[in-house]
Write a structure and sequence with these properties.
Number of domains: 2
CATH superfamily of the largest domain: MetI-like
Structural class: mainly alpha
Order of helices and strands: HHHHHEEHHHHHHHHHHHHHHH
Distance between the termini: 32 Å
CATH class of the largest domain: Mainly Alpha
Helix content: 55-70%
Shape: flat
Strand order of the largest sheet: 1-2
Number of strands: 2
Largest sheet: 2 strands, antiparallel
Strand content: under 5%
CATH architecture of the largest domain: Orthogonal Bundle
Number of helices: 20
Amino acid sequence: MAPAPRTRDLTLASAHDEVVNAMTQTAVVERKDRRAPRKASAQPAEGGSRFTLRAAFAQGDAFTRASALVLGLGNLVRRQYVKGAMFLLGEVTFLALFLGRGLHSLAGLGDLATVTKGGQEWDANGNFVNVNPTNSVEVLLYGVAWIFGVAAFAVFWSAAVRSAYQAQVLAQESGRAPSIVSDVRDLFDRRVHQTLLSLPVLGIVVFTIVPLAFMISMAFTSFDKNHPVAFDWVGLDNFAAVFSRTGSAAIGVNLGLFLRVLGWTLVWATLATFLNFFLGMFVAMIILRRGTRLKNMWRAVFSLSIAVPQFVSLLVINQMLQDQGIVNQLLKQWGLIDSSLPFFTNAWWARATVVVVNLWIGIPFTIMQITGVLQNVPGELYEAARLDGAGWWQIYRKITMPYVLFVLTPYLIITFTANINNFNVIYLLSNGAPTRVGESAGQTDLLITWLYKLTVDKGNYNVGAVIGIMTFVVLGVVALITYRNSGSYKNEEGFQ
């Protein structure tokens, strides 16, 4: 006789807890060991509390303090010739570039539009020539880049002073500062993490943080279709245009339109993420069932949509769903409809269309992701559940779903972020349609497609930068809150 439902649930939960505790016991012990206080090292690492900038000025000798003005001096005095020469060369190079171009670029940030004026003038040869106005984009870009350049030199300067102090202390303790060979060996041994992370960090700064700062600064300028070359600072005027009820009729933005696009963006990202996830999970579970035949064939069939470029498939589907497209024409010939279905002329139809088409594109990717996770669920959990008489729904709710969510929470967050920025599906399939007269965003536009239309299509880069800032804020807040409250973050080593 099968156990009563209540007894079955308790037995299943007990089996689940036993296996889970066995899986995580080692991880918990390791985590406690890492949290236990460690004895202070007799030889602190460079960059630790021993060789700080404050200690260098408080306890350093004359050569160490003089290294704040002449970088590398303390190293050269203590026979670290290569390191000292590198610091000195870096300082000389920075000062030469800064005095030659840096000061001019930073000064240009004060008034972007008045460095040079456009018009006509006589040149040195007596010819009347056209003079192009200042390219304010270039002035702004170089100014922002030099701000980061100065910040990078400040880090370089701090490292040079601390290195001089380190050479002083180690020379006093052992009679000689470490050689360049010892420093290089240390970079690939004790400090190998710094060596390996230096290039990725540099790439993030150059290709992510600097462009982000450039975009943020652009939101405070008059860089639009009326000022494409020479523009100036306008303060918070662009934010007022986006976040006021009246907004800007010339640009077609206002608070109501922003809230509508933001709301649809979040709804779209939620539907696109979780519908793809759950439907893809169910399809993957069906394929993995013992009774399912030709598993490889089914996986290959679902993978065909991945092989076709989205650019091609989305444009083809767009043509198929037009009023005179093949779908409406076939439905009319079969007598199922009298007039064309409003796939892209009605707001609700258009939104449903992009969600359904996105399922066709996204489910195969989810199947590939979840198949590997499902194959690694401990078989002991399933066997214990079946022996206790658990049904498929209980097994799914108590074993499969918690395990998959624990493993794939970071993937879900990344997918949600990608769907907020899912430019291809919206722009290539519906192009934001339908769009009301006088508005710059359509009923299916996301923040990212709205930004594209404001900038590339209409040239209003300043207002587009405001939308870009808000997109960044939404993504950052959602990603941080979601991840920090997930089991993957709170319990990295074990399965919840």
